[in-house]
Each structure stands twice: as structure tokens, then as C-alpha cells.
Write a structure and sequence with these properties.
homodimer; 5-stranded mixed barrel; Butyryl-CoA Dehydrogenase, subunit A, domain 2; Butyryl-Coa Dehydrogenase, subunit A, domain 1
Chain lengths: ~600, ~600
């Protein structure tokens, strides 16, 4: 049986020592969240993840969700009770608006905690995750009547939410959506059509499920400019808030898929279902973006989370499994063989994972803290800078964290040899579950295009300029620090490569957009390396400061070696990315489609 | 439903134009296999794979194997009939010894064909694959009585074979084996113990299953020098060849695993089972190596095969799926959207796969042809050179082909977006099936160690010296060819990196073996890049020759672009490998085991 331990002390170290948690104390939501409260919340949440959610992960995968003949959907054994406890504990509404029953704590806390719940049980964590996304979209775009009707119970998690975008013939290209909405006399709409791949589309965890649905109002313009957003509950809600008749929508079938079996991925059929417009007509994609951006950060967290739990299990196995002897002579001569952790190549796999995990967690928290800043900072410039950073880094962390997170699960599985392939050890589930994160909320190729095509040129390159300024500023400020120097030089090299690549894109992407497309994925990963390397430089500085103050410990000291490993073993990839980028689009575009 | 088309013309082009098939005509087995016979065999075998095996792949995965309460094991619907047809067609014994009923055709032909059967249905292809391996081991090591008893029916495939090495506490480190053999009075042995992860351990495809089992004879020395090899049939065979009583061995359970569900991976219990010694006492590992080397080549083929079938399905989808518009303006304005093959990043994924597949197929055939040379060449030096090449390249192709083959299945899955995650499209099965090839027959980390620790230093570096000579010889011979020049320069760079890495290993691996271990996986992949780049250089030369002769065609011409793509996009990784290798073992070994 796999194990999981929430890395609470690592999260706290990043908050206090790397991100100087104190500096956020001017934000209103932080007033009720001093560091000891943060610690208490993370500790309790971690315990919930470890003790309640993780034990249901393997069994939930095996059992899966079932659609009964009456069309109702049942989640795996134990999910319903766990979800009730999760709602009762106030976890869904942790960062929810207080006026709707949320706890109003900072957003970063919700993100930090979600790493633990996802690591423990990704399929489970998706139910509240999607609910939070739908809640956020309604908060921003819905009118007061809709808010009053749905938000109180969605904020607490008593009702859950979904997003309904994809149809059989379109996912990425939402301009092709066919689901139609016709006006009812009472101001509502009748929605008809089929949606597919709807996560948490139906289940038995909550009395009601609030669907956000993209559809085309009759007579709307073709393409993306004719898409509107609707809210359509599973069960209609009376004016007094009580539940009324079932809506004419439902789960047609559950997809048979590679992983996240504990989450019901539904084909949803809308048969004149009653729905209400959210936001303006034909501006549905804009409204959906609120949800999608948050969701992309959430999916990025999945990459880190799966990588972390996979690491923990692989490391435990490597320390326990006796097999062969160290190349440099027996390390445990009293035993029949040495534990495989003595082998450099086993350590390589583990360190590749771990040196990603810790820096990725830092980057995730930096973006999450930026969300709170963007929403609440009293300083306009700070709000804008935070907003720019989020916009720039969201595709990077979604794409890179999920690509690397998946690859790390595969590496962790490899550490177990044959046992990694057997279901009961749980490693192959991490691989299967992590795989979806590279696909949904915009496949990673789309993230890369969003980065090079939209985020880089946006506002005259303001966000990327600021990012370069932040990294090079840090390198400059610390260039006299001899102890830190070895941690900075490789990051400086990687930053230089990213700047060269950016220049190349500016010079070559404009005149031939295929050059930008051909470079996009390599550029995104090069960006990821630099951002993660920057995090390691900041972590190294924080550890050295603790050492200088005499308050370090073995766990912190070891981070310096992780930083060195990352620089020596992961950053060299930057040169290869740059070479590929600079090779341009020709070798990709020369072949005719028929030649493939 | 996924599709598959055996790439017969690509295989033939490699044989005739790249490897100068004629030059093998001096080998006895090639006397009955002129190129038109080869073509006929590949065409027929390809058809069998496409029409009989591929349609059972998805259903076989879904249904899996079942162990009935009486201990018997049933394969998925259709496997039994397909296997009978496969045996009746003479496919199992294609390269089998004629004295035991085989067809005595060249070994390379069996390898070339196995790519097709594995691509069509890996789980199925493992049954005859393991049988061929067991047959080979008995051919080399068993005495005449054992050969006469088992080989006729194993050669034709009427009976199947297995290899029983792994036990719950040991896989890589076979010195820890506990299964014991005690002498019976009649000269046979009574074998007792438990083996796990036994592919094709039990099933309903054949009347008998011949197990090769590693065990320790009572009183044998500890460690690998006390391991002997035994043959233990599922059903005892009478002296007249008829089947007698069942042996006291059987499948205790079928493992629940990530993929290859159509192949029964069994826990095998031996309860005083009757077995006979194969080869010398305590020399079992040597005997098993015959089987393992062949098996490692077979597993390498799995990497190429899964990558190929995944490519074919991803390419078909990319040409069919309408979504979005080309970055450089609509390419199919008459349709609602362009096919996604217009997007550079989609092409990148497809070309990364395809540019591997074609070169890997070439490398696989080169090694396979070397097997025939090593066995049959009248020239001692040629036999030795071929044998050296096989020894050197076996860990490279096992490790690299299966790592890259798996990664390619993941990329191909990504091309399908959400559909790639859904079982009915078949892509996620390719990923799950391909995953095992990185693990079994020696996990890829072991292949890398075998390469740097055994194969490089062996015979004073004779094999690696010869390999370098072959590649640089080709580059030198062709350096005046202006048309070929652009295809050679990047390979020369990569070769230089591999030579530098080899030098680094010689200088640093001796004094600290952890340096060799820390470098091993990167070295193996750098080696793979050079070997694949060498294949592309040879393919490019062959295509240019056809163009000069006016006998090229569009399919051949397109290979020049694949070569350019490989050089521009895949070879740059070589520099990153070299940097990582040269960073040494320190950042891997510094942390204490407890810090993981």
C-alpha cells in the first residue's frame, strides 16, 4: 500500500524563509492568517489528506465510479463519507467569500493545501477543485440573483460545480461548439446538446450539482464570438432555496479512461435543460476564462502533487529494498545485499524528481501568493505586477509541472522495478492519474502557444520584461555573496539562454508564425528551467542565511545539495532547448500532410 | 478502434538499400531467403498481424487473462484461435532449427517480423517470443535427451516456453534466489519455491508449457555461483513423447498490472516439481544469458513496435481532426477548421516519434543481421566483429528503444488530446503496454550499467573501438559528398561528444565507480543518439543514391526531411548528456540515505 506524508514543514519554510511571509501582512485576508494559523491549517489539512483521503486512493481507482441503470452515478466506497467530512471541516470554503459562508482565508493557503489533498487522492480532490472554479466564475460574472441562489451552498461545498466545454468534435477550438440555447418566456434558456469529458459531471456526493455550460444562443454569430455561458443545475432550485424538480440533463455514460477512476468523467446530455445566462450574451468565453485560469493553476498543482507522492514511495522503497551491492563496496555487509539507494542511478532518478518537486512547490506558492496580491494589494503597481506574473507563469507551470510531474511518476515507478508495474504498489496509478493533467484545461501544446503567442507580446512584453528583471535583479543583488555564487552561475547561464530564445522569437516569430509554434514547447520548458532554477537560488540563499544564523538543520542543509544537483543535472537541458528553438520551423513544416 | 499497417516497404528499403542485403548471401540460411522470399514472408506476416492479431489487441486488454478456481488460466477471447493459426502458419518456427521442425530462415527475418506482431498485439506476441527464447537456451545448453523431448514441439510452438527467474525478494540480484532443487533418485530434481512476474506462466494456448527455472541445488555455494538452470514442464512428458501426469507446479495467481493484460503474468508455485538440469550445475546464469540476450533484443523491438503503432494512430488522427486554424492562415478554408496536422507543435510530436522509429528500425535490423553473421559467417573476424557489435548494442537498444518508445507512446497519446485518455481509442493501452519494456529483462538502469561497466571495458574496449571506427569510417568515406554533407556534420558532432564521454568514463570511472554509475543512463542515451544518427546518415545516403539513379519516390524523399529533423531536433540532446556525465557523482552521492 502506498504511503503519503504532507510536506508541511517544507511549505512553511518556503513561506517564511524564501517568500518572507511577513511582507504580505498588509493584505486584508492575511489579517486572520498569521503564520501560526497557516501552520495549524496546513497541519490539520495535511492530516486529513493523509488519514482520510489517501487510504481511499487505491481502492477508489480499483472500484471506479458506476452509472446505474437509472442514470445516477455512484462514487467509490468511502468517497461520500470523506466528502461529507471535508465539507463539514470547512475545507471547501477555506478561501471562499465570507458573505457566502466561506472562511475568507488567503488564496495561497487553499493552493498550498490542495497539493496535499491531490497528492493523497487526485480523483477525490477534483470534486471540490471544480466546485471552487465554478464558484469563482459565478462570483465574477453572475448577477446577484444567481449568486444568491447558488453561491452559499457551492462555497461550502454542499453543492458541487462543473465546467461543460468540450463536445465530441471540439475541445481546444470552442468556436465550433454546437450546444444551443433557446430563450424561454421566463427569461431562462432551454439548453440542448452533448458535452463530453465532464469531470465530476454526476455523482452521489452532493444533493445538487451546478453546471456551467457553454452554448450558442439561437441566432448568435458563428465562432467564438457567439458562445455564451449558462448556469444549469442538476436539480432546479426554488426561490426559497429548496430543491425542486430535476432538470432535463444527465450523465449519458461514464468514460472508460486511463486513470482518475474515482472521478466520474461523464458524457452529459442536455435535453432542453433549464439554464440561466451568466454574464453577457456571446461573451461566454471571457467568463469561462476566470474559471480556466484558476483551473490551470489547479492542474499545475496536480503535477507537483503526483510527483511528490510518487517520490515519497519510491524513496521509501529504495531505502528498504535489498538488492546487489554498492559499486564502491558493500554498504550493509551484515545484510544479504545493500539497499538500492546506494546506487548512483537510483539516486539520479530520485533526485531528478525531488529537485523538481521542491522548486516547483516554491514556484507554485509564488504564483499563489501573487494571486492574493493581485486581488488585494493596496498598491496599484503591485497588483498589476502580480497580475502580470500570474498571466505569464500560468501556462508555464501548467505545461511544465504536468509534463515533468508525469515523467517523474514514471521515474518513481521505475525505481520499484517490476513491482512498479503491479497495481497493489500504487505506483502505476500515480502514472495513470498524472497523465490526464498534461491534457485537460488546455493540452500542454496549447499552454506553450498561449505563452509564446499571447503572454510574451502582451502589453508590449511588460510581463516578460518584469520577470527577467526579477531574476537578473536577484542575481545582481547577490553577486558579491561568495557562498551563494556556485548556486547562481548556472542560473545566470540558463537565464541568458532564455533571453536569447526570447530574442529569437521576437525576430523570427513575427515574420513566420510557424517559427513561434515550432519553438513553443521548447521555449516553455526552457522557461520552466529558469523559473525553477531561480527558485533554487532563492532557496539556497534562505538556507545559507539559516546556516549563518545557526538555525539550520539537516533537512535544510540537504537542500543545498538538491540545488547543486538541479544546476548540474537539470539546467544543462537549457542549451538543447535553445538549439532546437533556433533550428526554426523548416524541418517541421517541409513535409506534406500526406507524408505523415 | 486503433489501426495498424505493417511498414513492409520501409523494412525492405532498409534491407536492400541501406544494408546491402546481397552481401549476406554467403550465409547458409540466406540461401533459401532471397529478397523476394523475404518480401513474401514480411508481407504475409504483416497481413497476419494486421488482420488477425491487431483486432484482438483492445479486446484482449479489456478482457485480460483469468485464473479459474481450478488453477487453470484462460486467455482473452480469440487468443486461442489466433495462436493456433499462428502455429499452423509456421510463424513460431520461422527461424527455428530445421532438425526440430523449424523453417531455418535467417534470424533477422524473425526479428523484422516480430516488430509487426508486437505492434499489432504485444501481449499476444509475448507467448511465441518467450517460447523462442526458451528454445534458444535449450538448443545451446541442454543435452540431447532434453532436446529430443522438448524441442520439436517448442520449435513449432505447439508447446510454449517461459523463463522463471524473479522471486519476491529478488529480480536484478539473482544471487539471492531461494528456490531449491533436491536430487531425485532417477537423476531428476525436485524443485520447490515461488517465482513471480512470470510472463506467459500459464494459459490455454498450448497443451504444455516448458518452464526454464533458476534454482539452487542443495549444498550449492551461496550467491550467483550456486544457481542452476532446470527445465520443468507443466505436464510431464513420457518417453514416447506423449503427455503424462501434471507436474506439481502451477499458477498461484495472476498479477494485477498496468498493461499487457492479454498476457498472463503469473505467480508460479513449485511444490517439489520434477525438473531436469540444463547445462552444468551451478552454471545456470550462464545458460540463462543466452535466453536473456535474445530476450533483450526482443524487448528492444517492443519499444520500436509500440512507438510505430502509436505513431500511425496519432498521425491518422492529426490528419483527420478539424480544430482551429493554421498560424499562417487557413489551410482548409472550405471546412469548419483545419486538420491539426497544420500546427507545428503537433508535427513536432509526430516527427519526434517518426524520426526515432525509422532509425530505430534500421538499428534493430543491423543488430539482427549481425546475429546471423555471428552465427554463420565463414569468416572468423566477421563473426567476432558481429558478436562484439551485438554485445555492445544490446543494452543500448534495450534501454534506449524502450525509454524512447514509451515516451513516444505518451507523445502520440497527447496528439489525441482528451481522446487519448479514453480507452476505446487505444492510445492509452499503447502507453500502458509499452511501459513494461523499460522494466523487464533487466530494468533500463541495469542496461546502462551493463554498457558502461561490462561492455565498454570488455576485451580491452574492442567493441567500442570498432563501433567508433565504423561510424567515423562512414563519415570519412563520404566527406567529399556535398549532397550528403548536411546529414553528416551533426552526427560528427554527436560522435565527438560520445568519444569525449567515453574518455571521461575511462579517466573517472576507474578511480571512482560511482562516477560510472552516475553517468551510465546519460551515456546510454548519448550512445543511442549517435547510433540512431549514424542510421539516419546511412539512410540519407541510400535515398540520395536512389535520387541520383532516378528511382526514388515521394516516400523515400521524405526520409531526407526526417533525417534533417532528427539532426536539428534530437541530436542537440547530446550536449546536455555530456554536461551531465561530466558533472560526476558528487551531487548524487553527497546526501545520506536518510535524507531521501
Amino acid at each position: 500500500m502506498p504511503v503519503y506524508k504532507a510536506p508541511v514543514s517544507d511549505t512553511l519554510f518556503l513561506l517564511t524563509d524564501v517568500f518572507d511571509f511577513q511582507r504580505y501582512s498588509n493584505l486584508p485576508r492575511f489579517a486572520d492568517a498569521p503564520i501560526d494559523v497557516v501552520e495549524a491549517v496546513l497541519t490539520e489539512g495535511g492530516k486529513f489528506a493523509e488519514e482520510v483521503l489517501q487510504p481511499l486512493n487505491l481502492s477508489g481507482d480499483k472500484e471506479g465510479c458506476e452509472r446505474r441503470s437509472d442514470g445516477s452515478v455512484v462514487t467509490p466506497t468511502g468517497f461520500k463519507q470523506a466528502y461529507k467530512a471535508y465539507v463539514d471541516g470547512g475545507w471547501v470554503g477555506l478561501a471562499g467569500a465570507t458573505e457566502y459562508g466561506g472562511q475568507g482565508l488567503p488564496h495561497f493557503l487553499s493552493v498550498a493545501l490542495s497539493e496535499y489533498t491531490i497528492a493523497a487522492n487526485q480523483a477525490f480532490a477534483m470534486y471540490p477543485g471544480l466546485t471552487n472554479g465554478a464558484t469563482a466564475a459565478l462570483m465574477v460574472h453572475a448577477d446577484d440573483a444567481i449568486k444568491a441562489r447558488y453561491l452559499p451552498k457551492m462555497t461550502t461545498g454542499e453543492w458541487t460545480g462543473t465546467m461543460n466545454l468540450t463536445e465530441p468534435h471540439c475541445g481546444t477550438d470552442l468556436g465550433l461548439i454546437k450546444t444551443r440555447a433557446t430563450r424561454n418566456e421566463d427569461g431562462s434558456f432551454a439548453i440542448s446538446g452533448q458535452k463530453i469529458f465532464i469531470s465530476a459531471g454526476d455523482h452521489d456526493l452532493a444533493d445538487n450539482i451546478i453546471h456551467l455550460v457553454l452554448a450558442r444562443i439561437e441566432g448568435a454569430p458563428a465562432g467564438v464570438k457567439g458562445i455564451s455561458l449558462f448556469v444549469a443545475p442538476k436539480v432546479l432550485v426554488n426561490d426559497d432555496g429548496s430543491l425542486g424538480a430535476p432538470n432535463t440533463l444527465g450523465c449519458g455514460s461514464i468514460e472508460h479512461k486511463m486513470g482518475i477512476h474515482g472521478n466520474a468523467t461523464c458524457v452529459m446530455n442536455y435535453d432542453g435543460a433549464k439554464g440561466w445566462l451568466v454574464g453577457e450574451e456571446n461573451r461566454g468565453l471571457n467568463a469561462m476564462f476566470v474559471m480556466m485560469n484558476g483551473a490551470r493553476l489547479g492542474v499545475a498543482v496536480q503535477g507537483v502533487a503526483q510527483s511528490e507522492v510518487a517520490y515519497q514511495n519510491a524513496a521509501a522503497y529504495a531505502k528498504d529494498r535489498l538488492q546487489g551491492r554498492s559499486l564502491s563496496g558493500a554498504k550493509a555487509p551484515e545484510k544479504s545485499a545493500d539497499p538500492i539507494i546506494v546506487h548512483p542511478d537510483v539516486r539520479r532518478m530520485l533526485l531528478e524528481i525531488r529537485s523538481f518537486n521542491e522548486a516547483a512547490r516554491a514556484l507554485m506558492l509564488w504564483v499563489a501568493l501573487s494571486e492574493d496580491e493581485a486581488l488585494e494589494s493596496p498598491d496599484t503597481a503591485a497588483r498589476q505586477a502580480a497580475d502580470d506574473r500570474i498571466g505569464l507563469l500560468t501556462p508555464v507551470i501548467k505545461g511544465v509541472f504536468t509534463d515533468v510531474g508525469f515523467a517523474n511518476c514514471v521515474k518513481a515507478q521505475q525505481v520499484l522495478g517490476g513491482h512498479g508495474y503491479i497495481a497493489e504498489w500504487g505506483m502505476e496509478q500515480f502514472v495513470r492519474d498524472a497523465r490526464i493533467a498534461m491534457i485537460y484545461e488546455g493540452a500542454n501544446g496549447i499552454q506553450a502557444l498561449d505563452l509564446v503567442g499571447r503572454k510574451l507580446p502582451k502589453d508590449g512584453g511588460r510581463a516578460i520584461t518584469a520577470f527577467f528583471g526579477e531574476v537578473s535583479g536577484f542575481l545582481n543583488e547577490n553577486k558579491e555573496d561568495a557562498a551563494l555564487a556556485p548556486y547562481l552561475a548556472p542560473v545566470k547561464t540558463a537565464l541568458g539562454q532564455l533571453q536569447q530564445a526570447t530574442m529569437w522569437l521576437m525576430q523570427n516569430g513575427m515574420k513566420n508564425p510557424d517559427n513561434a509554434g515550432a519553438a513553443s514547447t521548447d521555449y516553455m520548458h526552457l522557461f520552466g528551467l529558469v523559473a525553477l532554477g531561480f527558485m533554487w537560488a532563492r532557496i539556497a540563499k534562505a538556507v545559507l542565511a539559516r546556516q549563518a544564523a545557526g538555525t539550520s538543520n539537516e533537512a535544510l542543509d540537504s537542500k543545498l545539495w538538491l540545488a547543486r544537483f538541479f544546476n548540474a543535472r537539470m539546467l544543462p537541458e537549457g542549451g538543447a532547448h535553445l538549439q532546437r528553438i533556433a533550428s526554426g520551423a523548416e524541418t517541421l513544416m517541409a513535409l506534406s500532410a500526406a507524408a505523415f
